[in-house]
Amino acid sequence: MLTRRRWMQTLAVRPPAPNVLVFMTDQESALLPGVTRLPNRERLLARGVRFANAFCTTPQCSAARASFLTGLMPKRTGVWTNVDDSSLGKPLSAALPNLGQVFQKAGYQTALFGKWHLGLPDKDLRPFGFDVRVDGKDPAVTAAAVEWLRGRSGPWLAWVSLLNPHDIYAVRREMAKTTVRPEVRLPATDLSNLAAKPVEQREYVDRDQGKITADFTPAQWKLYRSYYLDLVEKTDAQLGQVLDAIDLDKTIILLTSDHGDQLGEHGLPFKGPFVYDECMRIPLVLSAPGRLRPGVRTDLVSTVDFAPTLADAAGLRWPAPVDGQSLLRPNRRDAVFSDYYAKQKWVNPIRTIRTRDAKLNVYDQTGHREFYDLRKDPGEVNNLASAKPPAMAALERRLNATIPPPAGA
Predict the structure, then answer these.
(1) 0.85 exceeded by the pTM?
(2) Containing domain of residue 214, as a range?
(3) In a domain, 201, yes or no
(4) Is position 372 within any domain?
(5) 80-134: per-residue pLDDT in tens?
(6) Burial letters for 60-88: b for 16+ Cβ neighbours within 10 Å, e otherwise?
(7) What CATH number is given to the structural domain containing 327?
(8) Strands of the sheet with 132-134, listed across from one edge
(9) How many domains does the chain have?
């Protein structure tokens, strides 16, 4: 039996709960097209692990963020696509356990600074476990986060959710003010590469946001990519302000993005009914003092891993089953999955399985498929689906078992 004296001694040596910072950018690809000066990210990398093969669950803001908060795939969160007036997405339910609730119930002070995009009203997020909510443009959001963090006694969970480099959508307007970076690379492929791809990708250029860049010259694509890198560097300056406001030795820090940007590869901008690695691979740095040694890991990681990882690092138990796993534990995953639903109100479901060696995309409404041998073709140039290699059938069986096709498909 534990005596009161022994109990008090146990309390006295128990380490204090760590603080938790999530720093999330919006639409940042891990496959940046040139040299980027990110001194504050380098500062974080010196303390943490860079995961070189991290993938989002879907290349859309709302659905990817719902996976981040809950550890669940889009079909299980109910947030299949973006949640706004122009889209078909349904708001995230507060009935699902999420990061804010789990940490708040554990005694953490919780705050969200910046983008939510998971349903209205979004000014009061107490049902989701966030005591404090501040919205606005990135400089104002960063300033509010710094003010809240400075001198705050823990434990706390702060999610700093920036808008950039999402401002890439203003590229037509901003190109005249943008200087081409001498080291920026041109896209390796252009619109001609879409000839052997599902027709939905060409339709994105003809009828949707792809029209904005359909006539771009190589020089204009260099401006697009230079402007994009400018925006990424802006987020790094804001990261520095936040890092300066906290005790790094007492804080678990996860830096990531919700999804990537196509960056002009295959002649495509932004994001749409396609799941190339430019859109799917996201930056991920995790600093967990005393739990992870700094370095680089190459295991396959998904957005659904982030919530269980942060809970595990803080010594908390997640209250329900999740699709992800803690990155503090051995990772034996050999594939990641994606589940895309719609582009605004253009319904175009795509299910994806990606291993280290191959990727299969299934377009459920039309039956179109893409299969890429990533060992020989990391740029996803040559669609081998029409050849129906044996590996494609094996991947499709795994995909159907994990993310079944919709009823009637």
Answers:
(1) yes
(2) 18-332
(3) yes
(4) no
(5) 999 999 999 999 999 999 999 999 999 999 999 999 999 988 899 999 999 999 9
(6) bbbbbbbbbbbbbbbbbbbbbbbbeeebb
(7) 3.40.720.10
(8) 132-134, 109-114, 156-161, 19-25, 251-257, 284-287, 49-51, 295-297
(9) 1
